[in-house]
Automatic annotation (TrEMBL):
The keyword Glycoprotein does not apply. Pfam families: Hist_deacetyl. Its cofactor is a divalent metal cation. This is Histone deacetylase 8. Its main location: nucleus. Transmembrane segments: none annotated. GO terms for biological process: heterochromatin formation. Keywords: Chromatin regulator, Chromosome, Cytoplasm, Hydrolase, Metal-binding, Nucleus, Repressor, Transcription, Transcription regulation. One of its GO terms (cellular component) is cytoplasm. It comes from the Eukaryota. GO terms for molecular function: histone deacetylase activity, hydrolytic mechanism; metal ion binding. The lineage of its organism: Eukaryota, Fungi, Dikarya, Basidiomycota, Agaricomycotina.
Length: 430
């Protein structure tokens, strides 16, 4: 595998990047019970690193990133996926005042998803922020759109789950799928170019340590033999008792009657490190090459990084083959489709801020060194003792054996064959 610094990696023209944020979004998102103040830390660090102000010499001296304020998603937009009952409850006064335990349980607003101050604002603003980023991609305003407050991959159609109250990933995929058919030009050296159109394809890649249960389930269809516009691929940890329980979270198996080649699952064992991620990159890249998406939604949950309280993987942020930073750089440089970068899990808030600020610099094409000093700003004390961007590896042993990784490789070789057949059977379906 090539390193990200190899000169053989084709250079792309500078990407146009949109970053979605506003004061009201930060205020609402900072009240999320599972991640209090995290949103504030993330955007403050991006600002402290001067990424909002940086000017790109390749874009006629324009700024690298255009900052766009999110709109609120309307109830009608939320109804594209969520049920009316859930929305009426979660957006209305009942969610704050209700003592009706059966309703509280029905809508999942208990345990790890308690109602919280301005929850209705949060739901509408986070969904609105992700949809604002989607609009920027669909309207051709940018090639990469960033919404670190999004990425709520456990929220279900009719209930909150796993710290997630709104299914912004699903809403984004549904909106991108509706884009106008894309023209595709194919030719060989001996033939004239052929222009075909096809419905846009959307690939969802989930890097969070937890399985993307709600997103995968939303598009799962084992009974179809046709092609699909949407492919989901979750890379995560799964083991008995590890959230979320799902029949879809095991390693995808083409021999299983319930197999759907458009709903893919690649679980990694405890301690997954840069070494393992370097090893599986060609597998993930192979799926992208086979599916050839027009849009790629990347859920950049960072709870698999070393130092996260979930303490399951040992992934590093930057520097080195297989790191999260190197993965994102490859996806941005080598994958053709437009990218939507979303947040997700990440329970060491300072590390989540480091990670998303660092990934922002990569998206801008202006990757900061990981030993960059974090300069004076209100949250500075939280970055001690290193006061740098780096999230280095811990001491956990990587339990992903060569034998297991070979099995993953073998499975995905077959999966690509099945996928290829299904896609070719549907060529020209637009
Ligand atoms: Zn997670």
């Amino acid at each position: 595998m090539q390193s990200i610094d190899d000169s053989e990696v084709p250079a792309r023209p500078a990407s146009r990047v949109v970053y979605v944020v506003s004061e009201e979004l930060v205020k609402a998102s900072s009240l999320l019970p599972s991640n209090r103040n995290r949103s504030f830390l993330v955007h403050s660090l991006v600002a402290a690193l001067d990424l909002f102000k940086a000017v790109n010499p390749d874009l006629d001296g324009q700024k690298y990133m255009q900052v766009i304020r999110p709109r609120r998603a309307s109830p009608r937009e939320l109804l594209v996926y969520h049920t009316r009952d859930y929305l009426e409850y979660a957006l209305g006064p009942a969610a704050r005042d209700s003592q009706d335990q059966s309703q509280i349980s029905e809508f999942g607003l208990e345990d790890d998803c308690p109602p919280f101050h301005n929850m209705h604002e949060y739901i509408q603003l986070v969904a609105g922020a992700t949809l604002t980023a989607v609009d920027a991609l669909k309207d051709g305003v940018c090639d990469v759109a960033i919404c670190w407050d999004g990425g709520r991959h456990h929220a279900q159609k009719s209930k909150a789950s796993g710290f997630c109250y709104v299914a912004d990933c699903v809403l984004a995929i549904l909106a991108l799928k509706k884009n106008r058919p894309a023209a595709k030009i194919t030719s060989t050296s001996n033939t004239l170019p052929t222009i075909t159109t096809r419905k846009p394809r959307v690939m969802y890649v989930d890097l969070d340590v937890h399985f993307s249960d709600a997103v995968s389930q939303a598009f799962y269809n084992a009974s179809s033999t046709a092609s699909s516009q949407i492919l989901t691929l979750s890379i995560h940890h799964t083991s008995p008792g590890f959230f979320p329980p799902s029949l879809l979270s095991d390693l995808s198996n083409p021999d299983d009657p319930a197999f759907d080649p458009f709903t893919l699952s690649l679980p990694l064992k405890a301690g997954a490190s840069n070494r393992t991620f370097a090893r599986i990159w060609p597998i993930v890249d192979g799926v992208e090459k086979t599916f050839d998406p027009d849009f790629i939604v990347i859920q950049c949950g960072v709870d698999g990084l070393a130092g996260d309280p979930v303490a399951t993987w040992n992934w590093c942020l930057g520097d080195g083959e297989g790191s999260l930073g190197s993965w994102l750089e490859k996806m941005l440089r080598e994958w053709r489709g437009k990218k939507l970068l979303l947040g997700g899990g990440g329970y060491n808030s300072a590390n989540a801020a480091r990670a998303w600020a660092y990934l922002t610099s990569i998206a801008m094409g202006n990757r900061l060194p990981v030993d960059t000093d974090i300069l004076e700003h209100r949250a500075l004390p939280l970055y001690q003792p290193s006061f740098t961007l780096d999230v280095p590896a811990g001491n956990m042993r990587d339990e992903n054996s060569e034998e297991y990784l070979l099995e993953v490789e073998r499975r995905f070789e077959r999966i690509r064959e099945v996928l290829s057949c299904r896609l070719s059977g549907a060529t020209g379906s637009a």
